[in-house]
Amino acid sequence: APTGELDSFERTIAADQRIEPRDAMPEDYRRTLVRQIAQHAHSEIIGMQPEGAWLTSAPSLRRKAVLTAKVQDEAGHGIYLYSACETLGVDRADLTQMLVDGRQKYSSIFNYPASSYADVGTIGWLVDGAAICNQVPLCRTSYGPYARAMIRVCKEESFHQRQGYELLQTMMRGTDEQRAMVQESVDRWWWPSLMMFGPPDAESAHTARSMAWGIKRHTNDELRQKFVDMTVPQADALGVTLPDRSLAWDSATGHYRFGQPDWDELARVIKGDGPCNAERVARRRAAHEDGAWVREAAAAFAARGGRVG
Ligand code: FAQ
C-alpha cells in the first residue's frame, strides 16, 4: 500500500480503533492475523473430536442434548472464524487443505485423548475456561471482523464452561468411584490447559509484535496467571486437588504462585508428536474427503442459478 495509507493504519492503531477489511494494512499484520485466526478456526473444528467421541455414550438424554449443543457450537465458532479470516483475502478451502497437510497449526490441547466420561466435564471447565481467559481480551483485538466474531464466541464459551463445571459438580456429589474419575481427569488436563496460552513470554516469537499491533492485548504469561487465579478457587469449591505442589497464594502479589508446565512437551505436541496428533488430522482429512460430494453438489446447484432439475 502507498505510504500515506499506512500512516492511516498507524493512526488507527494508535487511537485504538478497529482496522476493517478494506483498510490498508501492512502485509505482516495481515499475515499474522491469517496465521492466528486460521489456527483458532482449526482449533474449534479439531476441538470437536475429543468430546464428540462421547456423544453416543452420554449417560442420559439431557447430557446428550447438552453435549450435542456444545459440539455444534464449536462447529459454528469455526465457521465464524473462517469467515473472519476470509475477509483477509484467503480462501477457507485452502486453509482446510493446509490443516490436513500439516502446514497450519491448531491448539496443542486437542492432541490429548478424552479417555473417560469425566473428561467431558474437565474439558468444559478447564479447556473452555482457558479459552475464555484468552478470548475475552480478543473481543477488543484491533481487527474488526475478528473482534466481532469473538463477542459471540465468548458468550457461547461461558455456557460451555458452566456445563462442564456442573457436570463435575454432579459427579463429585456421586460415588467414591465418580469422585476418583474426576480427580484422575483433572490430573491429566491441568498441565496441558496451562500450555494452551503458548510458550513463556521470553520464548514467544510473536507476542511483542502482536501486542504493538493490538492483535494481542495481554501476553501469554499474563493470561496464564489470570487463568490460574480464576481456577484455583473453583477447584477448592469442587473439592478436587490441582496436581501442582508449588501452587500457593502469594499475598504480596495478590496472585497464586504455580509451577511451570513441561515446555518440552508443548514443543513436541506442537511439532506433531503428541498422543493424538496423527489420529486428529487423519479424522479431519477423512471427514473432508467424505464431504467432497456435498461441496460438489452445492457448487453445481449454485452454477445453475440455484434451480433444481
Ligand atoms: N498450541 O509466539 P507465540 C478453543 C505456536 S481454544 C499450538 O506465543 P502467538 C475453544 C504459535 O502458533 C484454542 N501452537 O504465538 C474450544 C506459534 O507458531 P507459528 C484455540 C501454539 O500466536 C474449547 C509458536 O507456537 N484458541 O479452540 C500454542 O503470539 C473446547 C510461537 O508462539 C486460539 O487459537 C498452542 N497452545 O500466541 C474448542 C486463541 N501456543 O504460528 C473446542 C487465539 C503457541 O509461528 C473444545 N490465539 N503456539 O508457527 C492466540 O491467542 C495466540 O495465537 C496464542 C499463541 C496465545 C495461542
UniProtKB/TrEMBL annotation:
GO molecular function: phenylacetyl-CoA 1,2-epoxidase activity
Stored Gene3D superfamilies: 1.20.1260.10
Enzyme class, first EC level, given as a word: oxidoreductase
Keywords annotated in UniProt: Oxidoreductase
EC annotation from Swiss-Prot or TrEMBL: 1.14.13.149
Protein name per its UniProtKB record: Ring-1,2-phenylacetyl-CoA epoxidase subunit PaaA
Lineage: Bacteria, Bacillati, Actinomycetota, Actinomycetes, Propionibacteriales
